Amino acid sequence: MSGGTFLGMPAFPEAAAAAVRDTRLRGNLRHATGTIRAKRAQAVAELPDWAGLRAAGAAIKDRTLRHLDHYLERLEEAVTASGGTVHWAADAAEANRIVTQLVRATGESEVVKVKSMATQEIGLNAALEAAGIRAYETDLAELIVQLGDDLPSHILVPAIHRNRGEIRDVFRSEMGRWGRPAPEDLSEEPAELAEAARLHLREKFLRAKVGISGANFMVAETGTLVVVESEGNGRMCLTLPETLISVVGIEKVVPTWRDLEVFLQLLPRSSTAERMNPYTSMWTGAADAEGADGPRDFHLVLLDNGRTDALADTVGRQALRCIRCSACLNVCPVYERAGGHAYGSAYPGPIGAILTPQLRGTVTELDASLPYASSLCGACYEVCPVAIDIPQVLVHLRERVVEGGEATVRGRRTTVRPARGHAAERAAMRAARWVFEHPAALRAGQRLASRTRRLHPRRLPGPGRAWTASRELPEVPAESFRDWWLRERGDDGGGRKGRGERGERRDRGGDR
Amino acid sequence: MRVALFVTCVTDTLYPGTGQAALAVLERLGVEVDFPLAQSCCGQPQFNTGYRRETEPLVRRFAEVFRGYDHIVTPSGSCAAMVRENHPRIAARAPGGRSADEADEVAEVAEVASRTYELSEFLVDVLGVTDVGAYYPHTVTYHPTCHGLRTLGLGDRPRRLLENVRGLELMELPGAGECCGFGGTFAVKNAAVSAEMGADKARGIEGTGARAVCAVDNSCLMHIGGILARRGSAVRPVHLAEILASTDGGAATDGGTAGGTVGGAKEEAR
Questions:
Q1: What is the residue range of B235's domain?
Q2: Which residue has the higher pLDDT, B267 or A277?
Q3: How confident is the model at residue B232 (pLDDT cuts 50, 70, 90)?
Q4: What pLDDT is stored for residue A326 in this prediction?
Q5: Residues B74 and B191 occupy one common structural domain
Q6: Domains of chain A: which residue ranges?
Q7: Cα of B93 to nearest chain A Cα, Å
Q8: Do residues B83 and A434 touch, judged by C-beta distance below 8 A?
Q9: Domain for residue B134, yes or no?
Q10: Does the model's ipTM exceed the 0.90 cut?
């Protein structure tokens, strides 16, 4: 019961096509993203200095990433000095191994979890289960996903694909198998659903000896970790257990508390459209004295898992600025229709489409399809609170897929080979480039198309079917614009010559 | 003022009426327009699909063809965005760039790109005109295409031009800023999602009751129009240039418009 797995999922277009046919999913997503989209816009519009904050957020992240080694070492020193222990994990397997050993050392076989993207990314729950340790998700939406043996489909609202009725059904049938059951007569009223979850989780909070979390930020100067949440369930997990283990991506470090101030304005407005975040928990190291509040034992597992590779990519590295607000998901027309599961990763939506192929590579068919899961409409870039130019990175990763080239993979500079299955497309692109370099050939092609226009079929075979299955083809005109120009004006725009005119003289000569 | 029309490969091949209309509007405003025949494609389809190396010669070609002009005007938001935003980046990353000649070439690409305008930008910002003396007695809804809206920041320029067209009734399009789902090769690589986005856009357009949907990009209009036609809809796609070219003397173009049968004002005005 560790939930499903993203392994072995189909490429994005197939999964997305199936999601498009699921009218209930579409209804749930349209409602949820539409609501939060409008609220975010309002919350952001309230701040006259939003553009400045956004630029500051991007600049702080860029500077920190440029000197990441320095700030991580400062962080380690500060955490260690305040009684915590820092572990370094190069990849998911190492992080899972460290956490499993730490839990085993406590002698416990249960842990409570704060909602965390890093532990979703590494598949921690499954690793713990394999070691005989049960991990209880305590974030309401994560709980719904876990009880339903489901996968998260949104960064902030992992159960966004479920409506109230579905949640009630999951609670009624599954809660009893994990602990306190839901009442028999549970309705789909939000207050009743929340109360059932509250009672179910309270039992876990009071019993747990080990808590596992991620963190939204780590402040290097004092070694302070920050978790930002809306329910208070996270704070329960961070304060009640005796041992706290936090798994955090290395890019989450910020140099100082002053830097934090910027992000605590950017994040809530972008994420939940709140002016101020409801529960902001901060802790520094371990509780030292007898009778002091909070965990006695604190472990920080710093996770790389592909982040250093992404950092080596001068275009792609901006994805590491991400503060996981989900604004790009909520505004994305592709996400709204494809749903989160189609992205086959803990990170769905536009940010997932640029983060996953950088963390996991572009080797599998699914990962190679992610950079194409976008119409490049730019809505994501517009709302991103740290100004990640997602369309730019998408196109950059598309280049890696079809042309290959230099990339850093597990710390080594490597020549990535083009992904398979693009041979026909590559040939077509080369042919098109040749034609566009030879306007005479372009015109010959246009004329051929015009002369045969009555013969063009309405439905195309092969790859063209993807167009004509849902759209009519445009009618080819009797003559192209350039032919019309030559006929009417008969002149090459004032006869300006340059290297750019190669091929054009012959072309015009043959025309007269 | 030496102005060149960059007609774009899509408009050149499939929608010559839009090119003629852009030309007519500019000439009506007293601008002398050249059409350098060596032009072809800005490279957007190649670049956005990941073929940066295939794009490099087209970027160089663009700068060579248009370097002699004060302004380059194009009836396409996405092609203007491709040139202005991506041509300098592509030139800067292209192999070479060490020698003085190559550095000059990189600088020239950026310089030519900075003088490239989408039609409505050129009319409003360079010519300072919002009333081009057009007459188009139809109900029209306006779809702001993504690259015009978000990359170029066209803002309300196209709307201001439309609002000054006599006889034209502008109908508000709900969710106007949302992508129509075209996205170049996205339309075939993710056809299911693309078609769903297009169908939602088409329903929104039909809901306005307008007779025509106007945009500044024929590629998006090809997708929207293709979906509308498949749905049997009476709404026709029409490029902004064609509306602006229409006068009470009749349509300024003689065929091959994105709208096909919409033509100009003439047929309806009578």
A1: 139-269
A2: A277
A3: very high
A4: 97
A5: no
A6: 47-136+209-321, 139-208, 326-416, 423-509
A7: 11
A8: no
A9: no
A10: yes
**CA nearest A472 in B: which residue?**
B226
Contact B230 A472 (CB under 8 A): yes
Domain with residue B248: its CATH number is 3.40.50
Are B14 and A476 in contact, with CB atoms under 8 Å apart?
yes
CB distance B37–A504 less than 8 Å?
yes
**B264 and B143 in a common domain:** yes
Find the mean pLDDT for residues A106-119: 97
Cβ–Cβ of A500/B61 closer than 8 Å? yes
Q: In the predicted model, what is the mean pLDDT of residues A231-242?
A: 96
Chain B residues within an 8 Å CB radius of A451: none
Q: How far is CA A445 from CA A392, B9, B10, B13, in A?
A: 32, 12, 13, 9
| Chain A to chain B Cβ contacts (< 8 Å) | 232
Query: Would B91 be classed as within a structural domain?
Result: yes
DSSP 8-state assignment for residue A214: -
Give Rg (Cα) of chain B.
18
CATH, domain range A47-136+209-321: 3.40.50.10420
> Rounded to two decimals, what is the model's pTM?
0.93
Per-residue model confidence (pLDDT) at position A96? 98
Compute the half-sphere exposure of residue A223: CA atoms within 13 Å on the CB side of its CA.
Answer: 20
Provide the 3-class DSSP secondary structure of residue A399.
helix
Rounded to a whole number of angstroms, the distance from the CA of B189 to the nearest CA of chain A is 7
String of b and e for A308-346 (b: at least 16 CB within 10 Å)? Answer: bbbbbbebbbbbbbbbbbbbbbbbbbbbbbbbbbbbbbb
pLDDT cut 70: percent of chain A above it:
95
Give B-chain residues touching A375 at CB under 8 angstroms.
Answer: 146, 179, 181-184, 186, 194, 197
Residue A237 has pLDDT above 60, yes or no: yes
In total, chain A counts a number of residues equal to 512
Same domain, B30 and B55: yes
- Does B186 lie in the same domain as B95? no
B262 shares a domain with B150: yes
Cβ–Cβ below 8 Å for B192 and A508? no
Range of lowest pLDDT (A88-102, A406-420, B15-29, B202-216) = A406-420
Instruction: Name chain B contacts of A498, Cβ cutoff 8 Å.
Output: 38, 64-65, 67-68
Of A13, A478, A503, the CB nearest to B189: A13
Give the tens place of pLDDT for each residue, B88-117: 999 998 887 568 888 889 999 999 999 999
Q: pLDDT for B250-266, tens place per residue?
A: 654 444 444 443 434 43
Mean of the pLDDT values across residues B20-43? 97
Q: What is the mean pLDDT of residues A377-385?
A: 98
Q: Tokens representing A394?
A: 């998408």
pLDDT tens-digit series, residues A478-500? 999 999 999 999 865 544 443 33
My answer on whether B120 and B189 are in the same domain is no
Q: Is residue B231 part of a domain?
A: yes
Number of domains observed in the structure of chain B:
2
Task: Tell me the nearest-neighbour CA distance from A510 into chain B, angstroms.
Answer: 14
Q: What is the mean pLDDT of residues A307-311?
A: 97
Q: Which residues contact A334 (CB under 8 A, 6 or more apart)?
A: A16, A350, A373, A374, A375, B190, B193, B197
Are residue B144 and residue B261 in the same domain, yes or no?
yes
**pLDDT above 70 (res A89):** yes
Across A430-452, average pLDDT: 91
Establish if B132 belongs to a structural domain: no
Residues B227 and B260 in one domain: yes
Helices (H), B86-212: 87-93, 100-114, 119-121, 146, 157-163, 186-189, 191-208
